[in-house]
Amino acid sequence: xxxxxxxxxxxxxxxxxxxxxxxxxxxxxxxxxxxLGTLSSEQRLARRxxxxxxxWEQLHAWLQLERSRVPDxxxxxxxxxxxxxxxxxxxxxxxxxxxxxxxxxxxxxxxPWALGRNYRKFAIMGGSLELYE
Length: 133
Description:
The chain is mostly helical. Helix content is 71%, strand content 6%. The N and C termini lie far apart (51 Å).
């Protein structure tokens, strides 16, 4: 089936071409957020409106354009679809100076409990690993 090979190759090329541009755009946003970290929430919000919001709008437009170029069903299409579908959550910080650009700090705080919960399911008894309920 000649079309299948062509589609797969095209999808790979799109991924290779799209990823660096997406990362460049996201890195711009994170560089700005690092600069804003020491400001008050009011100052942060004002700078987000004047500087970050245009970057997010450009990213959104680029994602929509890139999605029109990407074949359905591929990993790139799924990643772009996820971003566009969750756009309000991704950009919530633009409307509240107290909200972080991501939830990495929260995830790092809860990780020990999440890992502990999984580890407590198992117990070593008599030299063997058994499910503990």
